[in-house]
Amino acid sequence: KAFRVSFCQYAVNFPPLTAKYLYERFTEHFKTQEQINIYDPSSEWGGRLLGAMSVDDNRNIHYIGTDPNTDHNTHDGRTKYHEFADFFNTKTYRATGLFPKTHTYEIFQHGSEEIHKDPAFQKYKGKLDFVFTSPPYFDRERYSDDDTQSFKKFNSYESWRDGFLRPTLTTAFEWLRNDRYLCWNIAD
Q: Which one, 14, 43, 95, 142, has the greatest CB density within 10 A?
């Protein structure tokens, strides 16, 4: 119930505090690791990115997100995710004070069903520490009208399941380290 926003499936921003709690909870047993790689296959509106940037202890979080949505482009190969994370890292309490502490991020503008083909993403194979996302629920959440959106690329539930969901989960599982977690927020 903590994850259910409503009984309808509108595209909404995932609660950042919930994401922050999950990141802290599922990385607790290796929080002193040099870098904790968190992968979000469906970055949506940036709520989970904000949750990652706001983890406030000594963990070194590196958020890796994918979203093919070109509506998020701003300028010079940057997206609203870049702007959002940079704003948080430079304008909030995290960047000020005697001991500033910020987290890093990397954004890929690919669908999560195709990200495994990107050489820049391949460096994370076997190095992801936590995978968490809330994927689009087939055609119930529509983030943009881009042809790259899963509901446009896959016009039936079966083709979406086999062409989007299965490769996304396969990549998440195969890129995950041993003894780490994959959490998936999805409707019944």
A: 43
